[in-house]
Design goal:
Layout (H helix, E strand, L loop, with lengths): L1 E5 L5 E4 L3 E5 L17 E9 L4 E7 L3 E8 L1 E6 L4 E5 L2 E6 L4 E6 L6 E8 L9 E6 L9 E7 L8 E3 L4 E7 L4 E5 L5 E14 L2 E4 L3 E5 L3 E18 L2
Parallel strand pairs: 13-14
Antiparallel strand pairs: 1-19, 2-3, 3-4, 4-11, 5-10, 6-9, 6-11, 7-8, 7-10, 9-12, 13-15, 15-20, 16-20, 17-18, 17-19, 17-20
GO molecular function, one term: metal ion binding
Keywords: Iron, Metal-binding
Cofactor: Fe cation
Length: about 240
Amino acid sequence: MEKIFHPANTRGKANFGWLNASYSFSFANFFDPNKIQFGKLRVLNDDYVTGGMGFGTHPHENMEIITIPLKGQLRHKDSMDHTAVIKAGEVQVMSAGTGVEHSEFNTAKEELNMLQIWIFPEQNGLEPRYDQKDFSELIKKDELINVVSPRSNQNKDALWINQKAYLHLGEFDSGKKIDYQLHDIKHGVYVFLIEGEAEVGGKLLQKRDAIGIWETNEITLDIKNPSKVLLIEVPMN
């Protein structure tokens, strides 16, 4: 088993007044040669956006983009003629493929907190696509819920992307132990603790800490305090 620990206080920081962001991997003006990516996982940004503010129209290409609002809501508009509002409890996926432009704004008065995740696709030049789903009815206490899976092995309840990647969300009470089986020995799993306290891979994770683990078939989450967890399983090469 190989692992890398990313304490929350080692993330990159950016504060523009309307946007307060933390970067798990090198992004924008934050560069750390030891934090370029984790396997096919390229970006995990933890963004706080002031009410009425947001990201103007900007381009993406050849990237699978997943947005998970943790608090509040954002309005999405893109060059594929999609306009949508994504709220806490929902997950959005966008395959940028050959190229897409979009904007994201917090149209509410309250602050928006969202996770933005970029994963390299299996191949470039794919047709752009968009989807979103409300998982609030599916998420059950003390269970990992699959919210994103590969198109080639799609869970009918999950959104899909063009990569052999699996995203799970879970909320757990103290004292729970959760075993997670990886889908392939060539995969790794990046565990991001959204809230709480849990021991994973021999490390005690607290709020916004993360650990990447690979060269193993299984990991165990030992929940020490009520926790909310994001697991991102990706190919390592």
